[in-house]
Amino acid sequence: MPHAPHGPSGGDARTRILGRIVRRSLLRPFLLHRRNGILGAMTDFKTGAAFLGGDILPLGDAGLPLTDWGVTHSDIVYDVVPVWRGAFFRLNDYLDRFEASMNGARMEVGMDRAAIIRALHDMVATAGMNDAYVAMVAARGRNPVPGSRDPRDCENHFYAWCVPYVHIVAPEAAIKGTSVWIAKSVRRIPKDSVNPRLKNYHWGDFTSGLFEAKDNGFETTLLLDHDGHVTEGPGFNVFAVFGDTVVTPDDGVLHGITRQTVLEMCSAAGLKTETRALPLDEFWQADEVFLSSSGGGVIPVAQVDERYFSNGSAGERALDLRKRYFDWISQDRFRTPVAAPSR
Ligand code: PLP
Question: Which residues have C-beta within 8 Å of that of residue 8, sequence separation ≥ 6?
């Protein structure tokens, strides 16, 4: 259904918006002052914290310069590790992937692994978050040489931010089985154009797919490659279940840490796994479909386009794996408790 336009239009609206901007800029020094005060510190990290330029600050106070190539060229690699019940999950696996992304993108942020770990602990501890979505980011940065278009001149830098734990599909919807739209107007960026294994901000294809999905009343979108194989979606890998065999694409997709966890949980559950190309024609024949993401674990799928899976509800296998996931992220062998701030 088309959306009604938001709010009034024309001169009145413009005057109101201008008024709001003027009011905000007048208030800003006051808000910043309060944020840095004791009262501010008690409340301001609730919605998020950032580590930027070596400082920890409320997320709303953190920003990038307009000429950072991260802003102008989406020239960023990143990773997202969940914190669950006060501990990072599989922290070293996420850091391995983040470092591989930085190396692959030729980013040098001037911080070793120990310094990155300390930054993440300090930020999450300062924010006081027990369950969090923790992003670590390497941006190409600004080019300090006037007129230079040489990426080697840029000053790469690290920053991080955290917000309360994110479920990419609300748990109430996930347990009923979510809905997925196969994008028609766009294909996944080919792996030889932008390497999907280096986790990156080139989300133009996903964003187009999401517009299609939302316009058609679906929760999220799944992209095909140029050979008609199923790939992945915005923030998740995809799995198809055929009897007791679980299949997930291998090439042209990010190797999700949750995907890896699912493969390990399948072994523990006595299910067979195959990591290989998954043609759309075969995908339609699946008994069950589910998604995997650090933002919510295993997410059962009830509907893809007009096709209903597992009688239009969450599949049994997917629900079992979802339960196992929330058990595994609580197990000590995978956990790194968030340490008290080092400063
Ligand atoms: N694929 C893409 C494109 C992603 O952005 C993500 C996560 O953000 C995933 C897959 C799932 O990866 P993970 O399980 O490590 O969260």
Answer: 16
Alpha-carbon gap, residue 142 to 72, rounded angstroms: 10
d(CA 156, CA 135): 17
3 state DSSP class of 240: strand
- The closest residue, in CA terms, to atom 16 on ligand 1 is 294
Angle between helices 91-104 and 113-127 (to 10 degrees): 120
What are the pocket residues of ligand 1 if the criterion is a CB atom closer than 6 Å to any ligand atom? 80, 232, 235-237, 254, 256-259, 292-294
Residue burial 21-58, b: 16+ Cβ < 10 Å; e: rest: eeeeeeeeeeeeeebeeeeeeeebbeebbbbbeeebbb
Q: Which residues pair with 237 in a beta bridge?
A: 232, 292
Q: Write phi, then psi, for 255 (nearest 5 degrees).
A: -85, 90
pLDDT, tens digit (0-9, with 9 covering 90-100), for 135-173: 999 999 999 999 999 999 999 999 999 999 999 999 999
Record the pTM: 0.89
* Alpha carbon of 46 to ligand 1 centroid (Å): 25
Note the pLDDT tens digit of each residue in 84-94: 999 999 999 99
| Residues in the chain, overall count | 343
HEC assignment per residue over 79-148: EEEEEECCEEECHHHHHHHHHHHHHHCCCCCCCCHHHHHHHHHHHHHHHCCCCEEEEEEEECCCCCCCCC
Cα 207 to middle of ligand 1, angstroms: 15
What spacing in Å lies between the alpha carbon of 197 and ligand 1's midpoint? 10
